[in-house]
Specification:
With 209 residues, the protein is of the alpha/beta class. The protein has one domain: Alpha-Beta Barrel (TIM Barrel). Helix content is 38%, strand content 16%. It contains 8 helices and 8 strands, in the order E-H-E-H-E-H-E-H-E-H-E-H-E-E-H-H. The protein has helices at residues 23-33, 47-64, 74-80, 94-101, 114-122, 147-156, 187-190, 195-207; strands at 9-12, 37-40, 68-71, 84-87, 106-111, 127-130, 161-164, 182-185. Strands 1-2-3-4-5-6-7-8 form an 8-stranded parallel barrel, surrounded by 7 helices.
Length: 209
Amino acid sequence: MFYKEMLKLYLVTDRKWLNGRKLTDDLEKAILGGVTTIQLREKNLSNEEFISIAKEVKKVCQNYHIPFIINDNLEVALAINSDGIHIGQNDIPASIVRKQIGPNKILGVSVHNLKEAFQAKIDGADYVGVGAIFSTETKNDATNVTLDSLKKICDNIDLPVVAIGGINLDNISKLKNINIAGIAVVSAIMNADDITAASGQLVRELNHD
């Protein structure tokens, strides 16, 4: 069962921040700090390598009963029976992905405007990711979305909205009065000296009225 509360602190992985550490160890630390969903993002691996890492990450997510999402790769998502998949505007159309994964898996779609958000809903998305809200080094091709556009999407779409892109402790307060379900982050957690503490601080900010 999918609940929008699962999207509150959504961690997207990037192994470039590991510095020799084990990915599953860092993810466990993040979950202990308050991360509520994990998306495994691997753009430069073969499917065989991707599946191998995905199996390990899936075990961690299952141990803590949080959703495990695969980024973009439908073949990997199906192979490891992930809880869901997240796709972008230039990937396989969401309507086709929904047919492939069935009605009970989580489907997230990246959108940049209200038109794309409406289409994602029609195509069967469970939530939309909106960004990049702030400039980010994680995705060089990211399209920036204004806070006004984010608010417009949140106010007009009957789907949970996750804000993504350059979000950290310095700018998270700018999202305070926007009706997002949660935030997706990469470096704000994975590049932190203390991953558990960094996750906890973000959760406290999200819960702060």
